[in-house]
Every structure is written in structure tokens, then in C-alpha cells.
Write a structure and sequence with these properties.
Elements: H1 2-13, E1 25-26, H2 29-37, E2 41-47, H3 52-65, E3 74-79, H4 84-90, E4 97-102, E5 105-111, H5 116-124
Parallel strand pairs: 1-3, 2-3
Antiparallel strand pairs: 2-4, 4-5
Length: 130
């Protein structure tokens, strides 16, 4: 019990170690531009809390993002309901849309996919060459 309380306290203070690079963060133009400038592989997830397809995608993406193949992926979450300007900029019309970029170049997109193999194939478009 004491260990878990200490771990929770350390986590709350942000001293438990860095988060995985693939942990989704809310989309901001600045953070996205920085990831593009760094030439990082990027996933943009367009989600809505009420979307059943998004709910199916979430655990698949979380599992893939934690693998060594995708550990350096910068993941941005775009809220479908409140970030209409971002949707317009990306020409996205539906929630559950996934976009992948390598730096400034869009390498692929898909809407409504929930098959783990199809999602992995999409993410693989920005995986560094072995």
C-alpha cells in the first residue's frame, strides 16, 4: 500500500519518469509544427467521446503505440466536437479519422478502421526504414 501511494505521489509530481513518446497529447498547431520540424513520425487521431468506432480504435492504437516499432511516434488527439478549425485544415469530415505524417508529408489516412492489422499497416507508413 505504501509503495503504491509513493508511486502515485511521484507520478502526480511528474518525477516517475518520462511518458512514452506515443502517449496521445491534445493537438496544438505549435506542438504539431515542432514534431514536423523534427522529422518525427506523427499520428493525428480525430476522436469524439461519443464515437463507438473511436472507442474501438483507442485500445488498438494504445497497444501499437507502446511497441518498439512505434515508440517514437508523436501522437496528437484532435477533438472532433471542439476543434473544427483543425478538421478544416486537415480536410477531415468524420471522427475516427487517423492521419499519419513523416515530418511535413502526409503519408496516409483512414476513417473508421478498427481492424488491428489495417491500423498497423497505416502506422507502418511512417515507421523508419530498418
Amino acid at each position: 500500500m505504501l509503495k503504491s501511494a509513493a508511486a502515485a505521489f511521484a507520478l502526480a509530481l511528474g518525477i516517475a519518469g518520462p511518458a512514452l513518446a506515443a502517449d496521445p497529447v491534445p493537438f496544438t498547431k505549435q506542438a504539431f509544427a515542432e514534431a514536423q520540424s523534427a522529422g518525427k513520425p506523427i499520428l493525428v487521431e480525430v476522436t469524439a467521446p461519443w464515437c463507438p468506432t473511436c472507442a474501438k480504435q483507442r485500445p488498438i492504437l494504445a497497444d501499437l503505440e507502446k511497441t518498439p516499432d512505434f515508440g517514437d511516434l508523436a501522437v496528437f488527439d484532435v477533438d472532433y466536437d471542439s476543434q473544427k478549425d483543425v478538421l478544416k485544415a486537415f480536410k477531415v469530415q468524420k471522427q475516427s479519422t487517423l492521419l499519419v505524417f513523416r515530418g511535413a508529408d502526409e503519408k496516409g489516412r483512414a476513417t473508421g478502421i478498427t481492424d488491428p492489422a489495417a491500423i498497423k499497416d497505416l502506422l507502418s507508413k511512417v515507421k523508419p526504414a530498418a
